[in-house]
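Reopening this one. Same input as before:
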Amino acid sequence: MNIENSEMSHPPAVPDLMNIAITLPVDVAQALENRWGDLSEHALEMLALEGYRSGALTPEQLHHMLSKPSPLSFSER
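Same output, byte for byte:
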């Protein structure tokens, strides 16, 4: 996350996904990033875990949110 750039580029829209933006003061974002690293990843993890803890998400939804696609994809023939 580049917090110094006020104009953030947005990834292309992906079907069946929702993007959520959070606006933070730069000093706050820097302090959190220094502690937690990638704020986007940390926010996603915390949202997923709280959703599951509160009963809003099923175990399958939790897994789906936290699963990352492999950097390499191979199709079987």
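So the earlier flakiness isn't reproducible anymore. For the record, The longest helix spans residues 39-53.
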